[in-house]
Write a structure and sequence with these properties.
Bound molecules: zinc ion
Shape: globular
Structural class: mainly alpha
Distance between the termini: 57 Å
Strand content: under 5%
Largest sheet: none
Order of helices and strands: HHHHHHHHHHHHHHH
Number of strands: 0
Oligomer: single chain
Amino acid sequence: MNELMQHEPTIRLSFFFGTFAVMALWEIIAPRRALTTSKAWRWSSNLGIVVLNTVIVRAVFPTTAVALALAAQNNGWGVLNQIALAAWLAVPLAVIVLDFAIYLQHVMFHAVPALWRLHRMHHADLDYDVTTGARFHPIEILLSMLIKFAVILVLGPPAVAVLIFEVVLNAMAMFNHSNVRMPTPLDRLLRWIVVTPDMHRVHHSIEDDEANSNFGFNLSLWDRLFGTYKQQPDAGHRGMTLGIRGHRNAKEVDRLPGMLLLPFRGKITGYAINRRSWGKK
Ligand SMILES: [Zn+2]
C-alpha cells in the first residue's frame, strides 16, 4: 500500500477533530452571534449527516480521490502528469486549481435550479456555527465527488496535493462557518488571502444578493476576481437573518428526516438564476 494512503485516515481524523475542537471552543469563548435554535438538535442533526455522508460515499465509490490521483499518476493521465513540473510548483498549483474548481462548482449549485434544491439544505440552517460547515445533502456530496474525480482525471494533480486540498478544505469549512468573533483588523488582514467567518457568513444571509456572494471556501481571490465579493451584510453580522425564505421551521430544517427531504419540497424559489424575485419580496 502506498505510504500516503496508509497515513491518510490518521491525517484526516487528526485535522478534523483538531480543527473542530479549536473552533467549538472559540465559539464558546467569543461567539459572534447568539444562537437562535436548540444547539442539541442542530448539532446532532448536522453531525449525524456527516456520519451518514461518510458511510454513503464509502459504499458508493470504489475509490477515494487520493487513490484516483495515484492511479492517474501511474498511468500518465491528466495535464500535470504529462508535463514535467517540479513538485514544489505542481503541488501548490494543483491545490489552487482544485480550489478554483470548487468555487465554480459552488456557483453552479446556486445557479442551476435542480442543484440549488440540493444545496439549499446547507443554507437552511437557521444558525451558523462550526457544524454548519459539515452539513451537506448526501446527493450533493455524491455529485461533488464525481466532479472532483473528473477534475483529477483532467488535471492529473500530485496525490499529496489532493490530500492537502481535502484536509485544508475540510478544516477551512469548519473555520469559516464558525460563530466566532475576531478582531476586525485580523479579519481584514486574513481576508486578503483566505475566506474568514465574517466573509462567508454573508453567503448564508436570507437576502438573495448576499447569498449570491462570497462563494469561495479557501482563497478569497475567486470572489474578488469574478465579481461575487460582498464585504459585509447590509444588516450587520448581528442583525442579519440566516437561512432561506419559506423554510424556517426548526423541525423541518434541523431534524434529519426534514433535512434529507428538503430538496424535494415545494417550488424552487430564492436564489436560482431564473427564479430570483428582485423587488418582489
Ligand atoms: Zn452556498
